[in-house]
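ok trying again, last paste got cut off:
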Amino acid sequence: MDEPGARHGPVPTAPPVPPGMRIREALQAARSMGLDRHDARRLMAHVTGRGSAWLLAHDDEPLAPFEATRFLDAAAQRAQGRPLAYLMGERAFHQLVLQVDERVLDPRPDTETLVDWALQCLQRPGAPAVPWVLDLGTGSGAIALALARACPQARVVAVDRSADALQVARANGDRLGLPVLWLQGDWFDDWRTAAQDGQATTGDGKPGQAPTQWPRRFDLIVSNPPYIAEGDPHLPALRHEPRTALVSGVDGLDDLRRIIAGASHHLAAEGALLVEHGHAQGPQVQALMEQAGGRPFSPRHDLAGHWRCTGAGWMGPEPAANAPAATGV
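nice, full thing came through this time. structure:
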């Protein structure tokens, strides 16, 4: 879970800004603080508003004093481990650009694996024409919004226990014009009965209007819950992200246990549960699904080839993967 470009050891600080500092000199200063070339150039493009091609062709151009100061300050923060997405205020995810900050987890590219799998389920032969989808622990809204964009016929409901996270998610949905119902709740608890009464809590703390045809069960439930164990050695590198979105008990499985145990009570007869988890947790998560009465699917692997997503359900034939999936980690 460590981010590339983050540096460990002495805390870097931004150097003084010399008069007339050129783009090339600023990038070299960022490199000396421990940033990789990719992060430094992305920060420079963000600060100057210039594209990468222009920056390469004009690296001898002087920066305005405020640009140099802003860039070096951002570079120092990145060198201290602050996610690039927070510094830029946005993250590209599954053909969307999401606004993100410290209130939500920085969406990872590996989570697109979960979205792709969910879309295969929603688009399989015999799938409901208007499926109901539940995203548990939505954070920035990345998964829910990606599904709403790629499967516009779906009715997407997204839940998070954090009111701050829901403010970020709802703002993303409003800006992108994608219809998602945002509800505050603790996994399957606290929100469902209130939503049936038309008083579901939204991110701003105001009553939210529930759909007139609220489903008793969902066709698909997806979740990227916290799954890092307490005391995991990677946690210091993730200190800028909300701990509640990362840590889940001694073994990292507390939240996954709750989700899996409750899923069968909220899934339609041919529904499915798909979850993301740590790269070494696949066998345990699959066993939990089997114990809960689910029929496990072949796991899905992330960009590094790790077993990253596990699913189960009562769907009939499993949607085919793009490539044969391995049976282990």
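cool. The chain has a mean pLDDT of 83. The first helix runs from residue 23 to 32.
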